[in-house]
Amino acid sequence: MKCPIVPVKISIVMGSKNDWKTMKFAAEILIKLGISFDAEIISAHRTPDKLFSFAEQAIINGYKVIIAGAGGAAHLPGMLASKTIVPVLGVPMQSTALNGIDSLYSIVQMPSGIPVGTLAIGKSGAINAALFAAQILALHDSHLSVRLNQLRKQQTEDLLIETDPRKLT
Ligand SMILES: Nc1c(C(=O)O)ncn1[C@@H]1O[C@H](COP(=O)(O)O)[C@@H](O)[C@H]1O
């Protein structure tokens, strides 16, 4: 998937096409914020050579953050992080057998020296990964910083309207 704005700043990577139903929530946030990104399927287990070349070229390709979603034995974020210094944010998929605990532990328990920023399991993690990546980019982009603050404000206003006590019946 390609967002029309160039150059691409963020890559959303996932272990399987079946992860897209979760990772699309990250994509939606990036689109909302006008951040360029691409998305592709790469698996440490199933396509290891593709993973190595992707990670080795991440800097040359201009990626500022990589968001990596994987489930089960979720080695994708850690393996990406082992091959590049582009920050990697890991999103554990809600797996069926173990409810995502397997994914979470696989991503969060990195050995010291190779960090992966681990988000929550599933949709919330995907959304927050995109917001976190945006906040990193906003450190050097004042326009994005304004858009992020607007999004926060809007989020608060929407919640206040939604939880207005006069609406409780
Ligand atoms: N965890 C990984 C990796 C990896 O870490 O490299 N590659 C695929 N997978 C995960 O396997 C799960 C099942 O994949 P399928 O649904 O394609 O069988 C997915 O959640 C994927 O992220």
From TrEMBL:
GO terms assigned for molecular function: 5-(carboxyamino)imidazole ribonucleotide mutase activity; lyase activity
Listed EC numbers: 5.4.99.18
Protein name: N5-carboxyaminoimidazole ribonucleotide mutase
Pfam family, one: AIRC
Keywords from the named record: Isomerase, Lyase, Purine biosynthesis
Residues that, per the record, bind substrate: 16, 19, 46
Domain of life: Bacteria
UniProt record similarity statement: Belongs to the AIR carboxylase family. Class I subfamily.
NCBIfam families in UniProt: purE
Pathway this chain belongs to: Purine metabolism; IMP biosynthesis via de novo pathway; 5-amino-1-(5-phospho-D-ribosyl)imidazole-4-carboxylate from 5-amino-1-(5-phospho-D-ribosyl)imidazole (N5-CAIR route): step 2/2
Reaction(s) catalysed (UniProt annotation): 5-carboxyamino-1-(5-phospho-D-ribosyl)imidazole + H(+) = 5-amino-1-(5-phospho-D-ribosyl)imidazole-4-carboxylate
SMART domains per record: AIRC
Summary of the function given for this chain in its UniProt record: Catalyzes the conversion of N5-carboxyaminoimidazole ribonucleotide (N5-CAIR) to 4-carboxy-5-aminoimidazole ribonucleotide (CAIR).
Name of the gene: purE
UniProt domain PurE: residue ranges: 8-159
Gene Ontology biological process: 'de novo' IMP biosynthetic process
InterPro entries from the UniProt entry: PurE_ClassI, PurE_dom, PurE_prokaryotes
